[in-house]
């Protein structure tokens, strides 16, 4: 397969529907059916087109080719508590990012996922999709992900704690080059002016994100009002951050 080189108005090839690695249980089959429906709604959306456009920019500008995605904060996919559809959409987006990178780089992209709320059913679902599980003791710790992240890693963090973001972007021994996750500009507006959470957001913003190119992600057709607020942005390391990551 040749590398995709697309202009801003060029549609990427349709993505093949992946198959589970083993025969799933009834509960896993139900989740996979829900996931497939969400993937079908994602593909033609404006949101998907904007994501693909930003991924194309990353693959063309990256000095180290992508080989892996580390997902942090995916949430429990099997939990039927409020927000399950949003969490399954987060998984659909993760798989779409993997597929897009594989098409654009013409190379396999391994996916890792870590969340302290994962159940055995969650892990079985992710394993059926060839996603490797990483462990962490709590949502405020990077856990095993800290040993997996390198210069070829794209971080996908749809719902990560501010404490983990501090470790990831400010304190990490391996500088992170690319992140698709929370839009910190939007997070600043979320918290009251003198709250501890706003202070944490400001710390990460001042200490790390000034060295990244930020691009907010928007677009209709996938996230709905019932999913809750989900402001996202793509962050790409510039200058010294990228140089340190390659060392």
Characteristics of this structure?
247 residues, alpha/beta, Rossmann fold, 8 helices, 7 strands, 40% helix, globular, disordered C terminus, SRR1-like domain-containing protein, SRR1-like
Give a quick rundown of the structure.
With 247 residues, the protein is an alpha/beta fold.
Task: Describe the overall structure.
- Strands 3-2-1-4-5-7-6 form a seven-stranded mixed sheet.
- With 247 residues, the protein is of the alpha/beta class.
- The relative contact order is 0.16.
- Helix 3 (84-105) links the parallel strand 1 and strand 2.
- It has one domain: Rossmann fold.
- The radius of gyration is 17 Å and the shape is globular.
- Residues 1-14 and 240-247 have low confidence and may be disordered.
- It contains eight helices and seven strands, in the order ααβαβαββαβααββα.
Draw up the topology in text.
Blueprint: H1 26-42, H2 46-61, E1 68-72, H3 84-105, E2 110-114, H4 120-128, E3 131-134, E4 153-157, H5 162-171, E5 178-182, H6 184-190, H7 196-207, E6 212-217, E7 232-237, H8 240-246
Parallel strand pairs: 1-2, 1-4, 2-3, 4-5
Antiparallel strand pairs: 5-7, 6-7
Main β sheet profile:
7 strands, mixed
How much of the sequence lies in strands comes to: 5-15%
Uncertain runs are: 1-14, 240-247
Cα-atom radius of gyration? 17 Å
- How many helical stretches? 8
Helix/strand-derived category reads alpha/beta
Percent helix: 40-55%
> Per CATH, what is the topology?
Rossmann fold
Global mean pLDDT: 85
How many beta-strand runs? Answer: 7
**Strand order in the sheet with the most strands:** 3-2-1-4-5-7-6
CATH architecture tag: 3-Layer(aba) Sandwich
- Overall tally of structural domains: 1
* Element pattern in H and E: HHEHEHEEHEHHEEH
Distance between the termini: 31 Å
Shape from CA axes?
globular
CATH class: Alpha Beta
């Amino acid at each position: 397969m040749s590398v995709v080189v697309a202009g801003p108005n060029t549609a990427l090839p349709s993505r093949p529907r992946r198959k589970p690695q083993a025969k799933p249980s009834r509960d896993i089959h139900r989740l996979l059916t829900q996931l497939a429906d969400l993937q079908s709604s994602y593909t033609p959306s404006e949101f998907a087109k904007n994501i693909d456009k930003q991924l194309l920019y990353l693959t063309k500008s990256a000095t180290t080719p992508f080989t892996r995605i580390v997902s942090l904060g995916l949430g429990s996919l099997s939990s039927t508590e409020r927000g399950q559809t949003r969490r399954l959409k987060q998984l659909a987006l993760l798989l779409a990012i993997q597929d897009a990178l594989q098409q654009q780089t013409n190379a396999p992209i391994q996916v890792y996922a870590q969340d302290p709320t994962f159940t055995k059913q969650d892990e079985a679902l992710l394993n059926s999709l060839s996603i490797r599980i990483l462990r962490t003791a709590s949502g405020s710790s990077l856990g095993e992900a800290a040993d997996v992240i390198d210069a070829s890693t794209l971080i996908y963090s749809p719902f990560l704690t501010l404490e983990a973001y501090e470790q990831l972007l400010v304190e990490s021994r391996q500088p992170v080059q690319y992140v698709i996750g929370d839009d910190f500009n939007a997070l600043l507006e979320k918290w009251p002016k003198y709250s501890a959470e706003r202070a944490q957001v400001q710390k990460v913003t001042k200490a790390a994100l000034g060295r990244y190119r930020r691009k907010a992600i928007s677009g209709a057709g996938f996230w709905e009002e019932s999913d809750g607020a989900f402001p996202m942005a793509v962050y790409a390391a510039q200058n010294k951050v990228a140089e340190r990551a390659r060392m």
